Fold each of these.
Amino acid sequence: MPLMLYLIGAPRAGKTAVFDALTNTPQGPHCFVKGPHRLGTVKVPDARLEALRDLYNPKKYTPAEVTFVDVALPPASAGEGNSFSQLNAFLGDADAFALVIQAFGEMDYQGNTPDPAKQFESLLLELIVADMEKVEKRLDKIDQEFKRGLKGNEAERAVLARCKQQLDEGKALRDLTFEPEDEKRISSFRFLTQRRLLVIANVAEDGLNGAALEPLRQAASAHKLEVLVFCAPLEAEIATLDSEAAAGFLKDYGISEPARVRLVQAAYRLLDLISFFTIGPDEVRAWTIHRGTLAPQAAGKVHSDIERGFIRAETVAWEPLLRLKSHAACREQALLRLEGKQYIVQDGDVIDFRFNA
Ligand SMILES: Nc1nc2c(ncn2[C@@H]2O[C@H](COP(=O)(O)OP(=O)(O)OP(=O)(O)O)[C@@H](O)[C@H]2O)c(=O)[nH]1
Ligand SMILES: [Mg+2]
């Protein structure tokens, strides 16, 4: 499963423009439609993997992927709760949310210019309210069962009460730590405030220096979040150009790298993800794991049989392999390591798993 990153934000904030910047290509948009939502899978750019591909010339080249989702929010209408609670079922499989903030300063239909920091706070609040609704509904149900003499849900009730208190204080469930047993008890609720967040300020062309974003940055950093600055329609346009023309435009606007690259890198950082590589004449491929994953579990990404029958991981870092250009040369220099079950896979490891079939 690729990483799923959902773009959410106020109506007209520029979610679709950001999505276009991520999924447009010179050959056209690279996305598909699911109900009212759009999904686009982006290959994670990785210069190390590209160099390994060039060295091995495999039949197949498979970079890691991130799937972005352009969420179509139903219009919020009085008495129906907040918009995210209506979307709860759909938002369930998100690994993370990117909050798209309208920071291009245009007036909305009510004639107000939206305040980026306020938008950010109100999105956080919406997520909290959506979780609160779930918690309260379940707590009510448990209370009713207690009244009818049905017992057995005390532990669930206790952990939900803890969640309720946290949400009551306006805080995300992400910041609570749970015992593994409690973690299991609440996992099926798929609470929105447990997902990680990043923030995209969608600015006008003349706002790319981010000068006007200090209040948003402060609000975000109070939650330990970073703000990425995009001019989404401009980036969507640039994404349709061939790479030479695109590079020229990016340079003119002083943008370091395309939105797609910056967002994917931020998502990796945010989710504490790393890549390891498997290589051979058939395929050169990247695999995404959480930092701290042990070798057998990393092997399980490739195939569950390899995890089960794991013997060892023949490992070399990407850098010496590219420099010396072969496993044999790395072995001669004692740079090829035989790692066991307790080995923690490092970012950029090139691994050949040995296993009992
Ligand atoms: N001036 C300016 N307009 C923008 C910018 N980004 C988006 N827009 C405009 O704002 C409007 C909304 O942008 P969308 O990308 O459709 O926003 P959205 O969040 O997907 O909107 P909904 O899906 O309708 O909620 C469009 O008319 C865009 O052209 C920007 O950076 N500058
Ligand atoms: Mg849209």
Amino acid sequence: MKRGLVGSLGLALCFAARAFAQTAGPIAIVDVNVVDVSKGEIRGHQTVLIAEGRITRIEYSDAIRVPAQAVRIEGEGRYLIPGLWDMHVHFRSSQARPDVPLVEENAALLDLFLPNGVVGVREMGGDLADSVFRWREQIRSGGHFGPRILTAGRKIDQIPPAWPGSLGVETPEAAREAVRQVKQSGADFVKVYFANVTPEVLGAVVAEAHKERLKVVGHRAYNLPIQTVVELGQDGIEHAYYMLAFQRDGYEALNREIAARRQTPLAVSLAERWGRMLYMEDPKEEERVYRVMAQKQVWVTPTLTATLRVWQELGERDFESDDRKRYVYPAVWESWDPKLGRRKPPSGEVRKILTEVNKRAQRAMLAAFKAGVPMLAGTDCGVDNSYVIPGWSLHEELENLVKAGVTPLDALRMATINAARWRGAESTEGTVEVGKVADLVLLRSNPLEAISHTREVESVVAGGKYYSRYDLDAMLSEVERGAAAARSQQ
Ligand SMILES: [Zn+2]
């Protein structure tokens, strides 16, 4: 693949000032249904005025005069929701080819969010941290359109780390140093990815991060029961399957057995570990743990879509005929292809176990939600997570959350007001209210009636600018052109 030429050309395309027909002046959305995600109500016939990126007035349409200089957007029969956030995305290169940094390819993925109504993303770390910091600033300053970015920068992991770009640590001292390095780089929070970790090391990460006023979110290390991770003060757990709660004794006995059998021909595989963990569930303890998590406000991002895709659908569904392939650069698509990429379709017993883990994870999500554990919508989209396509995947996640038992309103909250709460911005963002930042999505149908209606994006207001469907489609066409050019260079 001749990467050099495509690389420089593509970057020039991506970051040139683009001529989408967006408006930076005052905006009036006239006679619209405003969806109040806090109260769960819809107020009809409202006119929403926006100036300098803020909502300045909301009144009944007949009680308000639209300023002459404002861009007038007809809202009749439409539904106005707060802009959506995908709270678990990745910008990164492929594990299969860590030597090939996929900068341009990830820049193109970034451009898929806004056309789908996703105005913000929480980036969970990878090897492209410097590029991600640059994109974050370019979008923040208005130099480039796109979702606002919060990023973990480089992940903190054990030695050797699972992903390129992660910082590997083995001692509490190294853990504290890694947190300081992450903070200094400009990260917004800390992501931990330990598969195995001592309580001392995880405790050191948490203590140092809290000293630096950073939250710590990430996986639950396999060797630690969820109880320990919560007690150590980790602020968030990613992936619902890491939230299953087990009998502590049984779990610790299994750990001892795994340690004893390590490096013998009878080493415990991940599938065996999962299979046995499924028989250690403890509903009473689960209830207690979720109550504690609710009280401590430990955030959970279930990421149901990614696990369904890579554990169940991969190998069953034909993705080659997916119409959205045209928006994905070949190196990214190849990372998703089971023949070339990292993820292989699980087979036989393993598939059965993972299907059961998925089922239990969905149940655990619902139980935790009902116990009051705060939750976020996140999809784990990006390179290597097969066919979880940025932008669209958030709508799938909302649908999967509803299928698992929450209401459309609850799912919508996880992608709006909860995301604002997580980033400490609920007083200025996350709802359609006067004084708040005007990050808004205009939908063609009522999302509280069917969550799939969030897919029907008519227009977007973000960063003080208005993007019509025409503008949003133009953005997609530009990504499509870039991907086609990259394909022809292969
Ligand atoms: Zn992830």
